[in-house]
């Protein structure tokens, strides 16, 4: 049994290793190798390895990046000075790696004041920058202290010099800023639930909201195992039911691998919490 468990963990680790094309957690206090950053008009720039409370992210329970992240603190960079800053990652040849589908997974925290400040994610398509995410301060609800997770399909922009750029624009106003905890570029072709399609399997939502992931199938779901990014099994269930809810409130934000068995069918997929 121990050998089976170990083999399963090794397969999980291998899957994650193959899936992750590029990753940065911004834990260190210096800019990561290969990355570049611009500064605002006053010389204010990004802070790396920041683990304190994120100002403006909640008065009673402010958010933080426990192991560190990168932030642009607009509040300390001067009011009405038009801070427009960029953080750009290194390029990577996705064609040479035979990547056919890809996605960006991001954990961030956008802090607004009076609905001011925009956060954007752009990707280089080989010719021009393409916007794949716009978090508009006008559309952002008051921050409750929770970090946000997003998964962005970037398959349409696969090329031999792919790269990502994070942009923050304070719209020439007074506002709080932006923080990024974790960035991952994934080869999504490595995850598959094709074998489960015939038994009507589906899951939602992804990213996981309210800490609950719901699994459904036309037949009874026999086994569900959840692994973190270092191959540790963090949830194991035997629902024996056509619907099963995974309660993930005790798990930290991040990427998880879900392995499901329905009858004689097996599948693997990833979710973001």
What is the CA–CA distance across the termini?
Answer: 30 Å
Number of domains: 2
Biggest sheet details: 6 strands, antiparallel
Which shape, going by the Cα principal axes? globular
Based on secondary structure, the structural category is mainly beta
CATH topology of the largest domain: Jelly Rolls
Count of helical stretches = 1
Give start-end ranges of low-pLDDT stretches. Answer: 1-10
Please trace the helix and strand order, writing H or E for each element: HEEEEEEEEEEEEEEEEE
State the total count of DSSP E strands. Answer: 17
Query: What is the helix content?
Result: under 10%
Rg, please? Answer: 20 Å
What is the CATH class designation of the largest domain? Mainly Beta
Beta-strand share of residues: 35-45%
* CATH arch. level architecture of the largest domain: Sandwich
Q: What do the pLDDT scores average to? A: 85
What would you note in describing this structure?
The structure is a single chain. This protein is mainly beta. The protein folds into 2 domains: 20-187, Jelly Rolls (Sandwich); 193-272, Immunoglobulin-like (Sandwich). It has one helix at 2-19; strands at residues 20-24, 36-37, 47-50, 69-73, 84-88, 102-111, 118-124, 129-135, 148-153, 164-169, 177-187, 202-209, 212-227, 233-237, 241-247, 255-262, 265-272. A hairpin with a 2-residue loop joins β16 and β17. It is globular and about 60 Å long. Mean pLDDT is 85; it is low at 1-10. Residues 1-19 form the signal peptide. It comes from Aureibaculum algae.
């Amino acid at each position: 049994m121990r050998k089976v468990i170990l083999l399963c963990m090794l397969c999980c680790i291998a899957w994650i290793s193959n899936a992750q094309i590029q990753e940065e957690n911004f834990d260190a206090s210096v800019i990561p190798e290969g990355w570049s950053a611009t500064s605002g008009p006053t010389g204010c720039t990004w802070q790396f390895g920041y683990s304190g409370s994120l100002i403006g992210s909640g008065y009673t329970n402010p958010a933080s990046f426990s192991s560190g992240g990168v932030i642009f603190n607009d509040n300390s960079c001067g009011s009405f000075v038009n801070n427009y800053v960029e953080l750009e990652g290194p390029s990577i040849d996705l064609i040479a790696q035979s990547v056919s589908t890809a996605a960006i997974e991001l954990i961030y925290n956008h802090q607004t004041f009076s609905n001011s400040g925009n956060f954007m994610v752009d990707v280089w398509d080989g010719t021009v920058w393409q916007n794949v995410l716009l978090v508009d301060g006008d559309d952002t609800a008051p921050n409750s202290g929770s970090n946000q997770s997003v998964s962005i399909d970037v398959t349409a922009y696969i090329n031999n010099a792919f790269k990502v750029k994070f942009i923050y624009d304070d719209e020439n106003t007074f506002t709080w800023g932006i923080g990024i905890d974790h960035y991952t570029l994934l080869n999504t072709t490595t995850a598959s639930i094709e074998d489960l399609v015939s038994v009507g399997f589906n899951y939602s939502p992804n990213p996981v909201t309210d800490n609950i992931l719901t699994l459904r199938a036309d037949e009874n779901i026999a086994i569900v195992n959840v692994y973190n990014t270092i191959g540790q099994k963090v949830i194991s269930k035997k629902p024996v039911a056509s619907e099963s809810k995974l309660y993930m409130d005790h798990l930290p934000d991040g990427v998880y691998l879900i392995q499901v068995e329905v009858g004689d069918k097996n599948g693997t997929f990833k979710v973001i919490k």
